[in-house]
Amino acid sequence: SGKIAALFSGQACDVTSIPVTIYTLGNGSNTNMQAAGEFNQDGILDIVVVNAGFNSITIFFGTDGGSFGSTASIATDFLPFAVAVGDFNNGTYTDIVVSNGYSNKIAVILALGNGAYATPINFTTGSEPESIFVVDVNNNNRLDVIVVNYYSNSVSVLLGFDGGRFAAVGDFNNDNWTDLVVTNNSGGTLSIYFGFGDGAFTNQHIWTVGDSPVWIAVGDFNLDNRLNIVVSTYGCHCVEILLGLGNRNFQRQTTVFSGYIDYACSTIVTDFNNDNCLDVSIANFSLNQLGIFLISCL
């Protein structure tokens, strides 16, 4: 029918003829994770994408209307996997952090302004770091980094301090403390850890999703001031949404965008076209593509 209908708390969000624009990164790039941020201080959102096959990251600089123009590439260590952004040195610019699975390290890349970046600074993690989350877990007004380590079945918490260095992610229950959610690829579940506000978390709470979940993002899609969880699942080649109730519970999952996705390796949500509705960006590993879905909720 050319439409995708997603149900949010009993109300229909009618997504009609979603315009998708494909940006190709080249054969063999193995397009992996992505993050959105303002990298050249022009007031327009940009996207940074991991190219595992090229050992690099690529920045797509945004233009008016939700499209993207020029690009810039930054070399990384061998086999980069995930990427996240934040201001790690309180320099007012958007910095970048990348996980490098082969070297068991993350690299912090500090911004110099106008889209330029400094030489990466490396920090050791567990075995094969994959997902990265940036948040102030201990409430000291400095960004910290949470890393999920695939082979060591562990989570590394690197606490940030002045200068953009490290010594070693939403509020799902509306208690003003940061919580953590992790995908369990082999089990088809999510583990949610609720934060106490001092860097400590509860034991895991398990939620079942589709087969082989690979990436998660959070956002308030139905504008009820409660965070929802978006998870891309390799098994069903789709993206699923868990609707947050604000009390450590979630409503039934809704499957969206199942027609386009091949290997949805990462998903981010943000408002690319300034219409006050969250949009979705999906990176496809096997297709070497980035898909931008501009969504209007009625």
Automatic annotation (TrEMBL):
Gene3D superfamilies: Integrin alpha, N-terminal. SUPFAM superfamilies: Integrin alpha N-terminal domain. Keywords: Signal. Pfam families: FG-GAP_3. PANTHER family: ATP_GTP-BINDING PROTEIN, SENSOR KINASE-RELATED. This is VCBS repeat-containing protein. It comes from Rotaria magnacalcarata. The lineage of its organism: Eukaryota, Metazoa, Spiralia, Gnathifera, Rotifera.
